[in-house]
Design goal:
The chain is α/β, with parallel strands linked by helices and about 325 residues long. Helices cover about 40% and strands about 15% of the residues.
């Protein structure tokens, strides 16, 4: 647009009604979000070595733009790609609304409310939520060091969204038909060291076995770690088998703290997690791992802005530095 045409538009602004000005402002905000979202997407590919995601070739040619994104062609395999290829958001549409949806995630907006705000169907926001979270949950510490607390917590098994149930449906979560721990409860193991690094695993229905505990903790515990738990003997057997230092708190005897030995950090994390999950009125067990990763990122203050959240959904974690 040339200067003369632009100045003509500016002169027309005072003649707009209040409703027209509101519509104009809304449209300008949408365009700003669109451009900012595309800039975030493009910046992720610019910060890592440029190579073909299909054959890892490094000889690339610019190959025009498609839907606002730069496209590339590999000289070796002759295939094309863009900044979204190979990410969890590949082949999703309406990229201009992704930044706004990232803001809805940060604000914990319900799916229907986010859909109404963005002007999309609620099924679209459901699909986006789990595509975004499938990458965000990859924000995990590689190792837990020092004094590491571990404890399990339980959630009622949920088949929310399932169309074929072999039991009566529960409304708003409901209650288990059996008392205590049973196959109706899903176990979530949480381990947290004193630096705040936290890892979690959905181990399955019912009480956790030593094999499940070993499969979760063995790859991530440093050799000089001090593992602290409650009186569950499964942790003691695991520590003896792996040859790591171990201490336990006898909660049944009323003992909560023994100097630096306690599990109050991980239990406080359990409390924050359950309070946060209550806003969803029951999370489907199939998606529980996604929500655990979402809360972990929020609790670590990583997914605290829409720009960072969109970058994490693309597999780029700005708070991590590569050495």
């Amino acid at each position: 647009m040339n200067a003369e045409t632009f100045n003509g538009l500016i002169k027309q602004v005072p003649r707009l009604t209040l409703r027209q000005r509101l519509l104009l402002r809304k449209r300008l905000d949408e365009l700003d979000d669109q451009q900012q979202g595309l800039a975030v997407i493009e910046s992720q590919s610019a910060t890592r070595p440029r190579c073909c995601p299909h054959c890892q070739g490094t000889a690339l040619d610019l190959h025009g733009h498609v839907n606002g994104l730069q496209r590339y062609r590999c000289q070796a395999c002759r295939r094309t790609f863009n900044a979204l290829t190979g990410t969890a958001l590949a082949r999703l549409r309406k990229k201009d609304k992704w930044l706004g949806f990232s803001g809805a995630l940060v604000a914990y907006q319900p799916l229907r409310q986010a859909a109404a705000t963005l002007g999309v169907h609620r099924n679209t926001t459901l699909r986006w939520r789990h595509r975004f979270l499938s990458s965000i949950k990859a924000d995990r510490a590689p190792t837990l060091k020092g004094v590491t607390e571990a404890d399990e917590t339980y959630f009622l098994e949920s088949r929310k969204g399932c169309r074929k149930l072999d039991r009566p449906a529960r409304r708003r979560g409901g209650k288990a038909s059996k008392r205590g721990l049973s196959g109706e409860q899903v176990c979530v193991l949480v381990a947290r060291d004193r630096t705040g690094q936290t890892l979690d695993w959905v181990t399955g229905a019912g009480q956790m076995s030593k094999a499940q505990l070993s499969g979760a903790l063995q790859p991530v515990l440093a050799r000089d770690v001090l593992l602290v738990s409650d009186g569950n003997p499964t942790y003691r057997y695991f520590a003896q088998e792996e040859g790591i230092s171990y201490d336990a708190i006898n909660l049944s005897a009323g003992l909560r703290v023994n100097g630096a030995v306690h599990i109050q950090n991980v239990n406080a994390y359990h409390g924050r997690l359950k309070q946060w999950l209550s806003r969803f009125h029951g999370v489907a067990t199939h998606y529980l791992d996604n929500y655990l990763g979402w809360f972990r990122a929020l609790d670590n203050h990583h997914a605290n802005s829409k720009d960072v959240t969109l970058a994490m959904a693309l597999g780029k974690f700005p708070h991590l530095t590569v050495t």
